[in-house]
Amino acid sequence: MITSDGSTTIHLPEWDENYHSTHGAIQESKHVFIAKGFDKIDLSEISILEIGFGTGLNCFVTFLKAIEKGKSINYVGVEAYPVSEEEVEKLNYVSELKAEQQQVIFDEIHNCSWEKKHHISLDFSLTKRKQFFNEITDENQFDLVYFDAFGAEHQPELWTVDIFKKMYNALKLNGILVTYSAKGSVRRAMQEVGFSVERIDGPPGKREMLRSTKL
Q: Cα–Cα distance between 140 and 175 in angstroms, integer?
């Protein structure tokens, strides 16, 4: 389906849920994960863990931003249920981002094999891991977590103390986690595992979102 900014998302009729905000998929990605996450990491080399790789939008937007900023990126995307080739073919992110020169990169993001580290450019490596979030065991590996799981109303088990403990452990000291969610139960779960949590302005259509720091 087409969201309000012209970019596509995938709709799940059984949940009446979308992969991205209907107010704008690209708009949400740039606000939540780039402006409030990526842009806050003052490092030349950044390791990123994405929870919910989905359509690859956050990965592709990060790739474009990394070129602009001259950053080197190690990107790990975790997804239990990869999208299909047919779904990928209907996504319009390359044209909406006016990134036709990077079409080959978007294709590689989706076509590269799982469970293996790929250098999709000189300064951007991508590892796609097909696993459930409760199977994550990384420790002190990442500077930034994009927490982009489906909403707690549909998958509450992904927004628990146990899951956020895994996120806390996966981050390096002073690492940041950003998510579109602003639910009080999510904030309290983050705080319980040791995160310093702040409510900040959300993307269009959403008043607030959460950003957490491992102190």
A: 9
Closest CA to 193 of 158, 215, 164: 164
Percent of the chain with pLDDT over 90: 92
Q: Which domain holds residue 28?
A: 11-214
CB 74 within 8 A of CB 46: yes
- Asked if 214 and 195 touch (Cβ cutoff 8 Å), the reply is yes
CA atoms of 48 and 144, how far apart (whole Å): 5
3-state SS assignment for residue 129: strand
Measured CA to CA, the distance from residue 112 to residue 128 in angstroms comes to 8
C-alpha–C-alpha distance, residues 175 and 12, integer Å: 32
The pTM score is: 0.96
> Would you place residue 12 in the very low, low, confident or very high pLDDT band (cuts 50, 70, 90)?
confident
Rounded Cα–Cα distance for residues 130 and 90 (Å): 22
The domain that holds 83 is classified in CATH as 3.40.50.150
115: left (phi over 0), alpha (psi -120 to 50) or beta: left
Q: Exposed, middle or buried by CB within 10 Å (0-12, 13-18, 19+), for 125?
A: middle
Evaluate whether residue 171 is within a structural domain: yes
According to DSSP, the residues that pair with 139 across neighbouring strands are none
